[in-house]
Amino acid sequence: MSWKPIGHVSEIATGDMKRFTVDGEDITVYHLEDGWYATSDTCTHQDCSLSEGDVEGHEIVCWCHGGAFDIKTGSATRMPCTRPVETFPVRIQDDEIELEIE
């Protein structure tokens, strides 16, 4: 595992998210009130982009079908989603957003 810089803190306002492509994989980074989080950008139910959905508290709601995932843990929290999305550790170094990727 190694830390990869992917963007700058100034790119994502608090309460917002942004999709990045890291080593060919789309990952959504969330800047919530209590910290920074990252999940796979692909919904496990219908392969829709989660970065096009809505953040509601600590959940990302998929725009395709209304299912949701916990942003912190990746677990499915609302039907029809049943399988979790992958999560990634995030750290901030100076103004850089870094993800820990295999």
UniProtKB/TrEMBL annotation:
Top-level taxon of the source organism: Bacteria
Q: Which UniProt keywords apply?
A: 2Fe-2S, Iron, Iron-sulfur, Metal-binding
Q: Entry's InterPro entries?
A: Rieske_2Fe-2S (IPR017941), Rieske_2Fe-2S_sf (IPR036922)
Q: Which Pfam families match?
A: Rieske
Q: Which residues form the Rieske domain?
A: 4-99
* Cofactor(s) required, per the database record: [2Fe-2S] cluster
Q: Which CDD domains match?
A: Rieske_RO_ferredoxin
Q: State if Iron-sulfur is listed as a keyword.
A: yes
Task: List GO molecular-function terms, semicolon-separated.
Answer: 2 iron, 2 sulfur cluster binding; metal ion binding; monooxygenase activity; oxidoreductase activity, acting on paired donors, with incorporation or reduction of molecular oxygen
Its family?
Belongs to the bacterial ring-hydroxylating dioxygenase ferredoxin component family.
What this protein is called in its record is Non-heme iron oxygenase ferredoxin subunit
Please give the organism: Alicyclobacillus mengziensis
